[in-house]
Specification:
Layout (H helix, E strand, L loop, with lengths): L12 H5 L3 H19 L3 H30 L8 H19 L10 H10 L4 H11 L1 H21 L5 H17 L1 H8 L3 H9 L5 H20 L5 H20 L8 H8 L2 H11 L5 H12 L40 H13 L5 H10 L4 H10 L4 H4 L69 H6 L7 H10 L12 H5 L9 E2 L2 E2 L5 H10 L8 H4 L2 H10 L3 H13 L1 H11 L60 H11 L9 H13 L1
Organism: Ceratocystis fimbriata CBS 114723
GO molecular function: ubiquitin binding
InterPro entries: ASCC2 (IPR052586), ASCC2_CUE (IPR041800), CUE (IPR003892), UBA-like_sf (IPR009060)
């Protein structure tokens, strides 16, 4: 006993990947040998072994092993199903032996028990009941801390860690399913169930499915616990009724109601009804009224199971037309397909005889998978359990149809993968589909993965939406001027349609920002702009040059251009003139024909050549641009010439004279 070492911790997947297959096989064999040695100890020797640090190492080994097997599958415990099953049996036996030795640190951890219930669900009920009996205080302490943290995460909803909530509840559901006492513990009080209802409002389909399973298991625990708590169950159903009424009165859709999904997707109401109808326990009348009230929220079609129903194969009718077999069954000729099934099972279990395998196939309808499952779980029927497992078929049963499988040639050595060769890996290695796990059915579907999802539910789903911090960081990293379009020549492309600057009139920029100084001198003393030597050498010209930083030629040029552009003069006068509130002259608002000496740009007197500027644009009615009017007096030469030009070439090439005349007028005026 003193020579037995402590259990080494079970390594994680990262450590296992770094080990060679031979090393991992040796490690599994060492754990199995040590487990068998510890189980072979007497009670006193085992107590002495656990009294040192053996208990801590054994509990740590079991916790790590069950956690890894629950995550990766039992494939990691052996190269064959038989070895994996043997290691799982040793682990279960060690756990039961430790549970019978009283309170041990870490043995009542909810994570260890939940992982065990997931891995060895067939024996989870008895082992968890034993654990609750011997480790009551440590289990309740662990569940109390977990329940408190879950209530806080569920109440936080969107502001909390929804992914952590989903992972914890998914792991906890295995414990709630195997131990109804633990389910009843979580159902006690309103805080946990209210947190589930409030968290269900988040549009997260995977999380919603887990929340439905958790609520169903909690109510089922109250119903099927060793001491059914029907009064507490009635209170929980009443709380659900109140929540359903409040949801119905609100603006939220019915499909977002937790109670509607719970009573429609789970058989909880039918199970409660069976218990009520089976006995006369106190509180059944209240349960009956609660069931009738909640049935009104059940969707059409009744309750449906969360697990998809198995496809039922239609059995073929036995019409009695088969060939009568009069020979002895032991000497009957075996069919080739049955022999192939026998060979397939013997590859997995070489110690079994062919006759025993044939009887197993006959017992389970020649279903190889079912036979292998019963052999792995050691759950054969009483008839098969009493037979000789090494029994072989007689030789004459193989003479005609059985094809002997010759062993591998002795000249060819068995193939062993070399450690020097690289191993090809894939991102899908050791996933559910690679391990052929039963959970792979959750990810396989026909048609749409979520047929109930609509555009509205997808828009309301904030689980995959980026956070506000991510949006702000993306905006901070965005450079608005990175790909800005070059609009240098936009104004040139537009042309004269837009007056782009205030200081430029008719495409001419004068003064370059010195218009105010030039205009002030112009209004006070226009003689300063004369082109004479006396004026250039005067004090006023020198002061103007110093103020505007312009040469004499530029100043005189500005004066010349100002006199040539009455429009520029009006603009400068309107911009820089100071209005003192007194108006000495009132201009007439009545239109009158402009005189010949008018200096207006927009009006000009009639000319003999009919090409004067001014007047109205377009076809005009006389007195405007384009010369004489076609509606003038008959004896007027300008009128006759205008009418002649209007009708020229109108019949041969349409009325294009207007376009040509307009182009000439624009060229002359611009």
């Amino acid at each position: 006993m003193d020579d037995l070492p402590e259990f080494a911790p079970f390594p994680s997947s990262q450590v296992r990947e770094a080990l060679l297959p031979e090393q991992w096989t040796n490690a599994l064999a060492a754990w199995a040998t040590l487990t068998s040695a510890v189980l072979a100890l007497s009670d006193n020797d085992l107590k002495d072994y656990l009294g040192t640090s053996g208990a801590i190492s054994a509990v740590a080994y079991l916790g790590g092993a069950y956690a890894e097997v629950a995550a990766k599958g039992p494939r990691i415990l052996g190269s064959s199903p038989a070895k994996a099953t043997a290691n799982l049996r040793l682990m279960r036996t060690l756990l039961v032996r430790l549970l019978t030795k009283g309170q041990l640190a870490g043995l009542g951890d909810w994570g260890l028990l939940a992982d065990f219930a997931r891995v060895d669900w067939a024996n989870a009920g008895d082992v968890l009941a034993l654990a609750w009996t011997t480790q009551t205080s440590s289990i309740e302490t662990s569940l109390a801390v977990l329940k408190k943290n879950l209530i806080r995460l569920l109440d936080a909803s969107l502001s909390g860690d929804l992914k952590a909530v989903e992972q914890i509840l998914s792991r906890l559901n295995y414990l709630l399913q195997g131990a109804t006492i633990a389910a009843a513990y979580f159902a006690a009080g309103d805080d946990f169930m209210d947190g589930i209802v409030s968290c269900y409002k988040v549009m997260n389909p995977p999380l919603r499915k887990v929340l439905l399973a958790t609520g169903y298991l909690c109510l089922r625990g109250l119903l099927h616990s060793p001491e059914p708590k029907l009064g507490m169950l009635a209170d929980r159903l009443y709380s659900l009724k109140v929540v359903a009424d409040a949801h119905k009165a609100g603006p939220v859709s019915e499909r977002d109601s937790y109670v509607v999904e719970l009573v429609s997707a789970t058989p909880i109401l039918s199970q409660i009804k069976k218990v009520v109808e089976s006995g006369n326990a106190p509180g059944t009348a209240a349960l009956t009224s609660r069931i009738d009230a909640l049935k009104t929220y059940q969707r059409l079609g009744g309750a449906r199971s969360l697990r998809p129903a198995r496809l039922k194969q239609k059995k073929a009718l036995d019409k009695g037309k088969q060939v009568v077999d009069t020979a002895d069954a032991n000497h009957a000729e075996l069919h080739a397909h049955k022999l192939s099934k026998v060979a397939e099972i013997q590859d997995l279990f070489p110690h079994l005889g062919s006759a025993f395998v044939c009887k197993c196939l006959d017992e389970y309808g020649e279903d190889v998978e079912q036979v292998v499952a019963h052999l792995l779980d050691s759950s054969l029927s009483s008839y098969l359990a009493g037979l000789d497992q090494s029994e072989q078929l007689p030789d004459n049963g193989f003479t005609q149809t059985h094809i002997e499988t010759t062993p591998q040639s002795t000249f060819d050595p068995p193939y062993t993968p070399s450690a020097l060769l690289p191993t090809r890996r894939n991102i899908h290695d050791d996933d559910d589909l690679d391990r052929l796990s039963t959970s792979v059915s959750k990810n396989l579907h026909f048609g749409k993965s979520n047929s109930r999802q609509t555009a509205d539910s997808l828009l309301h789903d904030k689980s995959t939406a980026p956070s506000k911090a991510a949006i702000m960081s993306a905006l901070a990293a965005f450079d608005a001027d990175d790909d800005e379009r070059d609009d240098t020549y936009d104004a040139d492309d537009v042309g004269a349609a837009i007056d782009s600057t205030v200081n430029e009139v008719d495409g001419i920029g004068l003064g370059n920002g010195n218009e105010e100084a030039l205009w002030r001198v112009y209004t006070e003393n226009p003689g300063v702009f004369d082109r004479s030597n006396d004026v250039r050498s005067s004090t006023a010209r020198a002061k103007l040059r110093e103020e505007t930083a312009m040469t004499d030629e530029a100043i005189e040029g500005w004066y010349i251009m100002l006199n040539r552009s009455p429009r520029l003069k009006r603009n400068l006068e309107a911009r820089y003139s100071t209005f003192d509130g007194s108006q000495t002259k009132l201009a007439s608002s009545r239109w009158s024909r402009p005189t010949e000496n008018s200096d207006s740009e927009d009006t000009a007197g009639p000319s003999n050549d009919g090409r004067g500027r001014g007047g109205y644009r377009g076809r005009g009615r006389g007195g405007g641009r384009g010369g004489g009017s076609v509606s003038g007096s008959v004896g007027d030469a300008a009128t006759q010439k205008a009418r002649k030009n209007k009708e020229a070439s109108k019949g041969s090439r349409a009325n294009h004279s207007r376009r040509d005349a307009h182009a000439k007028k624009m060229a002359r005026g611009g």
